[in-house]
Protein backbone atom coordinates (compact mmCIF):
# COMPACT_ATOMS: atom_id res chain seq x y z
CA UNK A 1 0.00 0.00 0.00
CA UNK A 2 1.41 3.36 -1.02
CA UNK A 3 1.20 5.99 1.69
CA UNK A 4 0.24 9.60 1.12
CA UNK A 5 0.67 12.65 3.33
CA UNK A 6 -1.93 15.29 4.03
CA UNK A 7 -1.44 18.80 5.34
CA UNK A 8 -3.57 19.86 8.30
CA UNK A 9 -3.06 22.57 10.89
CA UNK A 10 -1.45 21.65 14.22
CA UNK A 11 -4.70 21.96 16.22
CA UNK A 12 -6.50 19.53 13.91
CA UNK A 13 -3.48 17.17 14.03
CA UNK A 14 -3.51 17.27 17.85
CA UNK A 15 -7.29 16.59 17.90
CA UNK A 16 -6.86 13.75 15.40
CA UNK A 17 -4.07 12.19 17.43
CA UNK A 18 -6.15 12.47 20.63
CA UNK A 19 -9.19 10.87 18.97
CA UNK A 20 -7.09 8.08 17.46
CA UNK A 21 -5.47 7.39 20.84
CA UNK A 22 -8.87 7.32 22.56
CA UNK A 23 -10.00 4.68 20.08
CA UNK A 24 -6.72 2.72 20.29
CA UNK A 25 -5.83 3.20 16.63
CA UNK A 26 -3.12 4.88 14.64
CA UNK A 27 -3.78 8.23 13.00
CA UNK A 28 -3.71 6.59 9.57
CA UNK A 29 -6.21 3.82 10.35
CA UNK A 30 -8.45 6.23 12.27
CA UNK A 31 -8.45 8.64 9.32
CA UNK A 32 -9.25 5.80 6.90
CA UNK A 33 -12.13 4.73 9.18
CA UNK A 34 -13.47 8.32 9.29
CA UNK A 35 -13.39 8.48 5.49
CA UNK A 36 -15.23 5.17 5.26
CA UNK A 37 -17.79 6.38 7.85
CA UNK A 38 -18.55 9.59 5.94
CA UNK A 39 -18.64 7.66 2.67
CA UNK A 40 -21.10 5.04 3.98
CA UNK A 41 -23.38 7.39 5.90
CA UNK A 42 -23.36 10.15 3.31
CA UNK A 43 -22.85 12.60 6.15
CA UNK A 44 -21.19 15.87 5.21
CA UNK A 45 -18.70 16.94 7.90
CA UNK A 46 -19.36 20.59 6.94
CA UNK A 47 -23.02 20.19 7.87
CA UNK A 48 -22.02 19.35 11.43
CA UNK A 49 -20.05 22.57 12.06
CA UNK A 50 -21.73 24.91 14.51
CA UNK A 51 -24.52 22.52 15.41
CA UNK A 52 -24.98 21.01 18.81
CA UNK A 53 -25.49 17.30 19.28
CA UNK A 54 -29.12 17.87 20.30
CA UNK A 55 -29.82 19.80 17.07
CA UNK A 56 -28.31 16.99 15.04
CA UNK A 57 -30.33 14.39 16.97
CA UNK A 58 -33.53 16.34 16.26
CA UNK A 59 -32.76 16.31 12.53
CA UNK A 60 -32.09 12.58 12.58
CA UNK A 61 -35.18 12.02 14.72
CA UNK A 62 -37.35 13.88 12.19
CA UNK A 63 -35.89 11.78 9.39
CA UNK A 64 -36.59 8.55 11.26
CA UNK A 65 -40.15 9.57 12.13
CA UNK A 66 -40.72 10.58 8.52
CA UNK A 67 -39.33 7.23 7.35
CA UNK A 68 -41.64 5.30 9.70
CA UNK A 69 -44.69 7.33 8.67
CA UNK A 70 -43.91 6.62 5.02
CA UNK A 71 -43.49 2.90 5.72
CA UNK A 72 -46.71 2.92 7.69
CA UNK A 73 -48.77 4.59 4.96
CA UNK A 74 -47.20 2.81 1.98
CA UNK A 75 -46.71 -0.69 3.41
CA UNK A 76 -48.34 -1.37 6.76
CA UNK A 77 -51.83 0.08 6.17
CA UNK A 78 -52.27 -1.60 2.76
CA UNK A 79 -50.94 -4.84 4.25
CA UNK A 80 -53.37 -4.61 7.16
CA UNK A 81 -56.25 -4.01 4.75
CA UNK A 82 -55.30 -7.06 2.67
CA UNK A 83 -54.99 -9.25 5.78
CA UNK A 84 -58.44 -8.18 6.98
CA UNK A 85 -59.96 -8.77 3.52
CA UNK A 86 -58.38 -12.22 3.33
CA UNK A 87 -59.62 -13.02 6.84
CA UNK A 88 -63.18 -12.12 5.87
CA UNK A 89 -62.94 -14.16 2.66
CA UNK A 90 -61.58 -17.13 4.63
CA UNK A 91 -64.45 -16.91 7.12
CA UNK A 92 -67.00 -16.80 4.29
CA UNK A 93 -65.40 -19.74 2.50
CA UNK A 94 -65.17 -21.77 5.71
CA UNK A 95 -68.83 -21.08 6.49
CA UNK A 96 -69.82 -22.15 2.97
CA UNK A 97 -67.68 -25.29 3.27
CA UNK A 98 -69.31 -26.23 6.59
CA UNK A 99 -72.78 -25.74 5.10
CA UNK A 100 -71.91 -27.78 2.00
CA UNK A 101 -70.46 -30.59 4.12
CA UNK A 102 -73.56 -30.63 6.34
CA UNK A 103 -75.74 -30.90 3.22
CA UNK A 104 -73.62 -33.74 1.82
CA UNK A 105 -73.62 -35.62 5.15
CA UNK A 106 -77.39 -35.31 5.51
CA UNK A 107 -77.84 -36.71 1.97
CA UNK A 108 -75.48 -39.59 2.78
CA UNK A 109 -77.37 -40.27 6.00
CA UNK A 110 -80.68 -40.26 4.15
CA UNK A 111 -79.29 -42.70 1.53
CA UNK A 112 -77.91 -44.91 4.32
CA UNK A 113 -81.33 -45.02 6.01
CA UNK A 114 -82.98 -46.00 2.72
CA UNK A 115 -80.36 -48.68 2.08
CA UNK A 116 -80.68 -50.00 5.65
CA UNK A 117 -84.46 -50.22 5.30
CA UNK A 118 -84.11 -52.04 1.96
CA UNK A 119 -81.63 -54.46 3.53
CA UNK A 120 -84.04 -55.22 6.39
CA UNK A 121 -86.95 -55.81 3.99
CA UNK A 122 -84.76 -58.15 1.96
CA UNK A 123 -83.59 -59.96 5.11
CA UNK A 124 -87.18 -60.43 6.29
CA UNK A 125 -88.10 -61.85 2.91
CA UNK A 126 -85.14 -64.23 2.96
CA UNK A 127 -85.77 -65.16 6.61
CA UNK A 128 -88.76 -67.36 5.85
CA UNK A 129 -87.68 -70.03 8.28
CA UNK A 130 -87.26 -67.45 11.09
CA UNK A 131 -83.56 -68.14 11.58
CA UNK A 132 -82.97 -64.65 12.98
CA UNK A 133 -81.27 -63.15 9.92
CA UNK A 134 -83.38 -59.95 10.02
CA UNK A 135 -82.78 -59.57 13.79
CA UNK A 136 -79.03 -60.10 13.35
CA UNK A 137 -78.83 -57.48 10.57
CA UNK A 138 -80.89 -55.06 12.67
CA UNK A 139 -78.48 -55.55 15.60
CA UNK A 140 -75.49 -54.84 13.35
CA UNK A 141 -77.10 -51.72 11.95
CA UNK A 142 -78.05 -50.48 15.41
CA UNK A 143 -74.51 -51.00 16.68
CA UNK A 144 -72.96 -49.09 13.74
Automatic annotation (TrEMBL):
UniProt organism field: Aquimarina gracilis
InterPro entries: BfmA-like_N (IPR048012)
Name this polypeptide is given: BfmA/BtgA family mobilization protein
Amino acid sequence: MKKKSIIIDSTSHRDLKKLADEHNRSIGSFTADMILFFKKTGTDPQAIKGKSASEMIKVVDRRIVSFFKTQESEILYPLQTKVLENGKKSEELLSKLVNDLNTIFSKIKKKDEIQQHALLVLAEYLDKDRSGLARSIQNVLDAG
